[in-house]
Amino acid sequence: AMKINQDTVLRGKKVTLVPYTAAHVPRYHEWMQSEELQRLTASEPLSLEQEHEMQRSWREDADKCTFIVLDSGRWPGQAEENSMVGDVNLFLTNTEDPTMGEIEIMIAEPSCRGQGFGKEATLMMMAYGVRKLGITKFEAKIGQENEASICMFKKLHFKEVAVNSIFQEVTLRLDVSDQERQWLLEQTNHVEEKSYTELKQPAGVLDS
Fold first, then answer.
1. Which of 25, 52, 66, 163 has its CA 20 to 30 A from that of 32?
2. Three-state SS for 13?
3. Cα–Cα distances in angstroms (integers) from residue 94 to residues 15, 35, 37, 61, 164, in the given order
């Protein structure tokens, strides 16, 4: 099951990726009350209880890998819920092709958009998918109006492969050749993988 990342922290320059836990749900729920985010993520508003259910199912599901995106400048140091900027997901939903991952990024905190947080989080998730989950192809489905996101994926070498005018959605795709793989690992060679349990413990607690 997708508990592979339940103790994984990926620490980059701008962002740190941590597993999605129950502690993150209230803030996540608050974000998802925004009509703009509902539209951009094509999702229905849920009650807090439903959002908790969702978080549990995500943690248990074998075909989803999800991280909460924290601001590296704020965490560790500040409370996680005050450092949350968004989330990044990988869906392994193509039963015929387990090497295909659909990637989704959301920078929910308006003040944190346009600063390269989404780009670094996406690169980190892609490198994780390639190294740990055996992904060789990525797909991203993005609302046509979300030009910033489409543009970002194109900068990450994705190519537009389809437009669905009914869902008003663009599908972008990247096949990870050896060259792309090398590029991806170079882009993320500063990223450190750590243990979530250890990082959450304030220094000194483990020594006593």
1. 163
2. coil
3. 29, 30, 26, 14, 19
**Nearest CA-CA partner of 56 in 41, 70, 46:** 46
Residues 124 and 15 sit within 8 Å (Cβ to Cβ): yes
As for how many domains the chain has, the answer is 1
- Between the alpha carbon of residue 198 and those of residues 83, 140, 182, 208, the distances in Å are 18, 33, 30, 14
Those residues of the chain that have pLDDT short of 70 are: 1-2, 201-208
The rounded distance, in Å, linking the Cα atoms of 92 and 82 is 30
On whether residue 1 sits in a domain, the answer given is no
**Token pair for residue 194?**
């750590």
Please classify residue 202 by burial: count the beta carbons closer than 10 Å to its beta carbon, then call 0-12 exposed, 13-18 middle and 19+ buried.
exposed
Res 201: pLDDT: 65
